[in-house]
Amino acid sequence: MKKLFKTTVAALAVSSAMFAGAASAQQKIGVVDMMQVFQQLPQREQISQQLQTEFQDRFEEMRQLEQKIQELRQKQERDASVMSADEKTQLNRELEQLVAEAQLKSKALQEDTRRRQSEERDELLGKVQNAINSVAEAGDYDLVLQSNAVAFMKSDNDLSAKVVEEMSSNSGN
């Protein structure tokens, strides 16, 4: 009987130790909805305004160039019957040259704006990652996943609002 009692106590001790080990092995997991975070960031509007200001002169130049092309086309249609062949040829050449210039400048402007948007997005993404790390460390999370990689989560695990709050408090950086 004494041997049975010792065996039972030993078995309980081992199972208790195993249960405690399993409980401590659980990880705290958080989830972040990156689309939601980016849509709510105060920095997003600042970056948009900054880029608009940065490229404002070039956008204005394109608008004026397009307006001049439109005016020449209207002149071509309006005065075609009273223009000499040389005048028509000269006008066509000028129009073709302006259209080619506009296409070249438009392509360069699109590439430059796309590049700058990408640079700003990458910089902002780095700041968001730092905010995620800060929130995860403060909340003692072992793992943080993006919401598009998760099939189900409890709303308690959604850290998106906390990340936006962290980014908002650091928006001066």
From TrEMBL:
Name its species.
Answer: Idiomarina fontislapidosi
Provide the alphabetized UniProt keywords.
Coiled coil, Signal
* PANTHER family reported in the protein's UniProt record: CHAPERONE PROTEIN SKP
Q: Which family does it belong to?
A: Belongs to the skp family.
Keyword hit for Flavoprotein = no
Q: Give GO MF terms, alphabetically.
A: unfolded protein binding
Coiled coil regions in record? 48-112
| Superkingdom classification of source | Bacteria
GO CC terms of this entry: cytosol
Q: Which GO terms describe its biological process?
A: protein stabilization
Q: Which InterPro entries match?
A: Chaperone_Skp, Skp_dom_sf
Task: Cite the SMART domains for this sequence.
Answer: OmpH
Q: Where is the signal peptide?
A: 1-22
Name this polypeptide is given = Molecular chaperone
